[in-house]
Amino acid sequence: MSTSVTSRALDLLGAFGPEHRALTLSSLARRAGLPLATAHRLVAELHRWGALARLDTGEYVIGRRLWDLGLLAPVQAGLRQAASPFLHDLYGATLATVHLAVRDELEVLYIDRISGHASVPVVSKVGSRLPMHATGVGKVLLAHAPEPVRGEVLQRLHRVTPYTVTQPARLLEQLRRVRAEGFATTGEEMSPGACSVAVPVRGPDGEVVAALGIVVPDLRRERARLVAALRVAAQGIGRVLTSAQWKQGLA
């Protein structure tokens, strides 16, 4: 059965990823499994529409129009709108980098971020995806994910830094503690010199719909204060998510 034009265009967009943010035409064709001539025609159409942008180097990147459309999705628009004032309050109280993230299949998708004052190496960006097992927000989301998701992530553990937890039994114990204690921490597991702490954000039915996290140089002295601040912010977001205004926004 022949592949539709729509499927081929989606294959081209799907060729991009965290490790492949800029691609040449030949790379796009190869990763999408398309003949070069077909890729050339479809890429030109996607570029004219704004789904792709062309750099001075000749490489293609995801275009602004796709990002604008993505922001209209309820998981982004609703959550970002509900969480925005609480993220700013959290930043004002800690001056640390603040993250709001959701689970996207087996990865963490960062949907909002406020950069902190401290010179802490932070690799996440709004719209980027990172491994769940190496991030604070990821561990929160993984702890509350369906069992099949946890099982698949446990089979794909990889080392990002020398401190990344890659032993399934150890990670499972950490996830158990996340559910019991209500927060997750990391120590230089995603980036050397960066520690994180995160808590769940619950939706109208009490389900975990997102994770709220902070990145700091050291957690040893400030963990209790940061957890308390995160919980206050997460509860505030949760109240907005359960309000009539939020429900109407998703109707």
UniProtKB/TrEMBL annotation:
GO terms for biological process: negative regulation of DNA-templated transcription. Residues 65-243 form the IclR-ED domain. The keyword DNA-binding applies. Keywords: DNA-binding, Transcription, Transcription regulation. PROSITE patterns: HTH_ICLR, ICLR_ED. InterPro entries: GAF-like_dom_sf (IPR029016), HTH_MetabolicPath_Reg (IPR050707), Tscrpt_reg_IclR_C (IPR014757), Tscrpt_reg_IclR_N (IPR005471), WH-like_DNA-bd_sf (IPR036388), WH_DNA-bd_sf (IPR036390). Residues 3-64 form the HTH iclR-type domain. Pfam families: HTH_IclR, IclR_C. GO terms for molecular function: DNA binding; DNA-binding transcription factor activity. It comes from the Bacteria. This is IclR family transcriptional regulator.
